[in-house]
């Protein structure tokens, strides 16, 4: 078995605390992800109903970040970056979290590639999300287009591939006292 993606925890008490946290993360992530995929399917189904499509697409934009923010929170429970604070700005947390996680689990190349090729699309959708979540003017309630919806799907698929690759062969280990 390849243990190059392993985090050794010398304190067995710390390991068992982490063990209970790691049991909560996959069900949460998978539930939000399944809901999001269903929302994408519903949005796709209602492409020809303008009112439903607009509402569902705006909901997709907001809900994508529920998934990402939950992931960031849990990753920082396993291996937080220095001075982590959940109140940090989204992209500061995102970048620092995944740099830390990818460093610990020997995935730096993956992180660098994602940041270089995918991060700008995520930022674009995040700008839409911010305007939708905190509208100051009517123009902030964006009128989704099929192009915007396709970009949301692309950003989700890119993020999902990134996360799935990080989590492949992702281990914690400790030495138990005998």
Write the layout of secondary structure elements.
Layout lengths: L5 E3 L3 H34 L4 H30 L10 H15 L3 H10 L1 H15 L12 H22 L3 E3 L5
Helix pairs in contact: 1-2, 2-3, 2-5, 2-6, 3-4
What ranges have pLDDT less than 50 throughout 5 or more consecutive residues? none
Quick one: how many beta strands? 2
- Structural class, by secondary structure, is mainly alpha
Listing every helix as H and every strand as E from the N terminus to the C terminus, the arrangement reads EHHHHHHE
Largest sheet, spatial ordering of strands: 1-2
Overall pLDDT level: 88
Radius of gyration based on Cα positions: 18 Å
The count of domains is 1
Q: Cα distance, first to last residue? A: 24 Å
Question: Which oligomerization state do the chains in this entry correspond to?
Answer: single chain
Strand content: under 5%
Provide a quick synopsis of the model.
This protein is mainly alpha-helical. The chain has helices spanning 12-45, 50-79, 90-104, 108-117, 119-133, 146-167; strands at residues 6-8, 171-173. The chain has one domain (6-171).
């Amino acid at each position: 078995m390849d243990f190059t993606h392993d985090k050794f925890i010398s304190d067995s008490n710390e390991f068992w605390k982490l063990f209970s946290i790691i049991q909560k993360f996959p069900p949460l992530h998978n539930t939000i992800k399944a809901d999001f995929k269903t929302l994408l399917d519903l949005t796709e189904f209602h492409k020809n109903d303008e009112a439903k499509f607009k509402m569902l697409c705006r909901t997709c934009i907001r809900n994508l970040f529920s998934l990402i923010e939950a992931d960031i929170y849990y990753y920082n429970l396993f291996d937080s970056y220095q001075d982590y604070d959940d109140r940090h700005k989204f992209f500061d947390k995102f970048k620092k979290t995944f740099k830390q996680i990818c460093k610990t689990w020997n995935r730096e190349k993956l992180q660098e590639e994602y940041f270089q090729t995918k991060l700008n699309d995520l930022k674009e959708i995040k700008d839409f999300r911010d305007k939708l979540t905190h509208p100051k003017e009517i123009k902030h309630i964006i009128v989704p287009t099929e192009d915007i919806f396709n970009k949301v799907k692309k950003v989700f698929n890119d993020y999902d591939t990134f996360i799935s690759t990080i989590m492949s062969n992702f281990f914690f280990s400790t030495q138990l006292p005998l």
